[in-house]
Each structure stands twice: as C-alpha cells, then as structure tokens.
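Appendix C: a fully annotated inverse folding record. The material below is reproduced so that readers can follow the format used throughout the book. The structure is listed first as tokens, followed by the designed sequence.
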C-alpha cells in the first residue's frame, strides 16, 4: 500500500475529471497552481489621468539617471490598474493579488509576454512622491532604473478612506 500512496492525489483528480468536475489543482510539492484569469477588482476604474503622470515621473527619474525611457504599454497599464484597484479595495499594499496571483500570473492572463515583468506598489502622496519613495529603496530603485525593462504601465486607485494606491508594472515584451 505505501507504493500507491503517492499516486492517490492524481487518481482522485482523474476520477473527478472523469465525472466532469473540475478540481482545484495542487501541484505535488504543495504549491497551488497560479490563478488562470485576471479577476481583481474588475469594477474599479481609478483615475485615468494619474497613470500618464506616474509614467512621466518614472521616465523623468530614468532620464535624470541617463537610462532609456520606457514606452507606455496598454496591457501593462491594464494589469497595473487592476492591481491598484485590488489594493484599494483591500486597504493594503502588496504585490500579491487578493486571489493569490503574482504580477507574472496577471501579465499572462492579459496576454503580455512575461520575460521580465516586475511590479512596484505604494500608497499615499502623489505620483512624484511614489517614484521618490521607490528611488529611496534599493530593490525598488534597481527595478525602476533597470535597463531590462522597455515598457511601463501604471495604475492608481483611491481606497474607501481616501488613501491613494499606486501600482507600476515594468516589462519587456520579449522582442
């Protein structure tokens, strides 16, 4: 019987599949399969005028450091906006989505190639304050000024208490 024990989860999944039920798949090493679709705070629109200001503040910081300017990418903006809305709805700043998704999961969900997507998140102040805060932190500064990113998408939402939430996704569309 001990030799069969490792096969039990896979046999159970097979039986459920045969019955027409879709099980929630957990990989053998215990990590859940990444969320398949982007479903974070779909009803929130944020303020569309803030994203370009945030993109501009990022490019101004990059220009001041002699770095390549980033092009705006609508798919990355979609991912960033959705995540900003999710953070505002939850009242927390985190790169993980409320559904357990990562920035890579969310980029894949909208069809953006994921060779090198990274995300920066923050709250409070204005767009220039968010960028200044990221520049003061080593890891975020490295991502913000990195030369592997070619595109940017920004999102902004306000929480129920008036707190401002920012999400920026930097990426390379694999070209």
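Designed amino acids, in order:
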């Amino acid at each position: 019987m001990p030799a069969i024990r490792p096969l039990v989860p896979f046999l159970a999944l097979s039986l459920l599949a045969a019955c027409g039920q879709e099980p929630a798949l957990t990989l053998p090493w215990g990590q859940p399969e990444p969320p398949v679709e982007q479903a974070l705070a779909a009803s929130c629109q944020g303020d569309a005028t803030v994203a370009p200001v945030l993109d501009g503040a990022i490019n101004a910081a990059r220009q001041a450091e002699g770095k390549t300017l980033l092009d705006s990418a609508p798919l990355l903006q979609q991912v960033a906006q959705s995540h900003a809305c999710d953070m505002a709805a939850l009242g927390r700043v985190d790169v993980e989505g409320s559904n357990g998704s990562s920035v890579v999961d969310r980029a894949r969900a909208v069809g953006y190639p994921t060779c090198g997507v990274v995300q920066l998140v923050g709250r409070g102040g204005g767009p220039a304050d968010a960028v200044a805060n990221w520049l003061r932190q080593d890891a975020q500064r490295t991502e913000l000024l990195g030369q592997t990113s070619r595109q940017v998408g920004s999102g902004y939402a306000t929480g129920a208490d008036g707190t401002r939430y920012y999400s920026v996704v930097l990426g390379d569309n694999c070209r």
